[in-house]
Amino acid sequence: MKRYQIILAVLLLIVPPAARSLWFYQGVYQRSQPVATPDYASYQVPVAPVTDGEESSTAKDHPVAQNSDEKNVTVLVDAGHGNRFSLSEIQPLTDAISHAGGKVVVANSPDAFLLDYRAADAYLVIAPAVAFSGEEIAAVEKMVGQGGRMVVMADPTRNGGTSQYSAEVGPMNAVSVANQLLDPFGLVFSDDYLYNLSQNESNFRNIVLTDFSKSPLTDGLKEVVFYSALSLSAAPTTLIQGDDNTLSSLTDQGGGLAAVGSDSNGRVVAIGDMTFATEPYNQIAGNARLVQNLANYLVEGSRQRTLTDYPYVFQQPVQFLVPGDIEVDPAKTAALGLIHASLGSEMGALKMVSTPEAGVDLVIPATYAEAQGQALSGLMKEFGLEYTGAESDASSGSDYPAMSSAEVQQLIETLKTASAEGTLDEMLQSLPSQSGGGTATETGTQAGGGTTTESGFPAGGAWLGTITVPGFGSIQANGNGLILLSHNEKRTTLALLASSTNALQELAALVRSGDLSNCAIMEQTAVCPLTPQTDPAGGG
Amino acid sequence: LTQFIEKLNKWKITGVLLFLIPLVIGLIIAALIPRPVVGVITLDDAISSSTAQAMINQIGYARAHPEIRAVVLVLNSPGGTVTDTEAVYLELSRLRETKPVVTMIGSMAASGAYYLTVGTDYVFAEPSSMVGNVGVIGYTPQYPIVVDDIYSTGPYKLWGEPRDQFMREIEMLKQGFIQAVVLGRGEALKVDKEVILRGQIWTGADALRMGLIDELGSQSQAMDKAAQMAHIAHYRVMDLGTLAWGVDTSTEPEFFQKTSDGVITPYPAKQGLYMLYIPTTGEAQ
Fold first, then answer.
1. Which of A14, A405, B95, B200 has its CA at 20 to 30 Å from residue A24's CA atom?
2. Residue A191: how many CB atoms within 10 A of its CB?
């Protein structure tokens, strides 16, 4: 076989596969770079910011309100507006309030709110979902106007839509409802959430806040973490704000967005988050400190109440001032009992003192004549009353003879549960000394040492002059009663004055009824028309 | 003459033997050379345990068969569970060591589906495809409580993990996701990680501008690109989905929740961690 024949045979063998190969395969695939995959093993679960020594996470390490045990501050927590939270969630905050000396009262309905707000010194509202009525908003404005404090907390996770709380709430967006309360104070929540993609606490919506304005609420804070927060689109004072990388979900823009702000007076605070006050997030960074500051802020409000807030005008235990030289006749006793009953069951036993004690608030029930006497004139100065005209008649005016001390207590206890003033006479008549035309002497004898009011000045006498009342001008003493309220650093004083003890009893009955609508009220003073005494010298 | 004829016949036979036999053998050998195949793996559902297993089977087949010179991944998926997504992603990575993989995004490659996308060598999308939604989502576990009739040996035996820990683990998984994007897209990526981590979903056109994909095009273009990368021509296309044997989906629970009247919702039926796009109406589930 010749050589060319062999070559030809080989070609015939190779060409078909080569041609097919070249037809299909034009090269060999080779990666230019190895396949890179994430180094999963190197990733670690982010760790929460640890509180440092100054920002210890335990409440006991934080400063609490001064003299916490002496405070008589009521913090009203709203739970009557479909609020999207449970009380157990905010227990760190309520515990802190209690620790700071505040009393936490929960209003479970709008009706309860309208009753309880008068007793409140501060109002805490979290994620409300049922609209506030005009009356409620006016009540809140009044409370804040009097120096009370309000904290409104919202949270984007509690804003709307269905949730585990949905069965209990109304259909409204919580931000809109919260803004109802905040709008009068220049504060407005945005319906957004804040986020930070570059620096956060384990998640973009967990924002780390380090920019604080100086205020009691931010005292001692270096860093707090809000686990989802709204921003404030309007705030007269920004207290806590995000950095440039903290953006609003509405605009994806940022830079100084406020997460906490207050009104211009510092009485209303809006916080765009509530999680910082819940477990376990209250243990992160300076959140526990913020919770404590918030509690202190709530209990340190100083609400100056007016007469329309009666009986919630006192901040301290209440005593009745009855100087020793003023005798207590049955009519005045009845008045004392009525007033005591009007203060509510929490006041405990009625305590009368002859001289004011420290650390208590005072009720002074007196006739005009007594008010001008030496024992009371000093205390009455602050009301600025000016008396002109007639003399007093110290001999009469009481419908009842003097009662024994036992009878006084019996009457008071009876009156504490009395609901209608019309029963007063019947109750008085039912007392042993009063029934069957008994006399004081007899009663005293029966009671074992009771005293009479034969000539005490001016036990029931009617003072018939005129009184100049600041803000009202001159009024006739006869037929008019005065209710006066004053606050000073030491105490709150409530004075009820009338021309006679009978008139005082009538005035007290009016107070007991809770209906002062017939009285002329100007802030701390009320002038109430009473039944004129046609025979002032002879009583009612 | 007779001798001449005999000589001629001898030469013919010899010629036949000399030329025909090698030719036949050559042709036989040529016939044994397989026509290159571009395999197509299609995901037209959420990434669940069954769909992931089916994909893994197909990827394994492609890796084991040399005639499959390239693979085109056709995606139309909102993503799925984290573990199933990662499982497919890692299998794709093995396949890519020997064969190019090109992705063709159909109507959507969101979240976990985009995770798979960045694990391929070249990405096509349609102009209106929905691309991105990078991130992780999950339901927080229940607060641990003690159940009267259940005894366990630890506080989280029943609940898995603390709620706080869950939140942090999601963040860790997110780190893996974004790292996969950065590694997968490489220098093609034209936006910062922060932009991607917003979780936004973009159209194919936007995704191209941002470097999340490589080209706008059709599935046939994706095939050609895969063939080009594999240096093959005149390929045939094989739907590897027909080879997804061994995956029994009949007993698998529904991936998505259904309403009482049978309507499928976009929300996963089971609690867990997801790389899933949920086109929510704002209602928490």
1. B95
2. 19
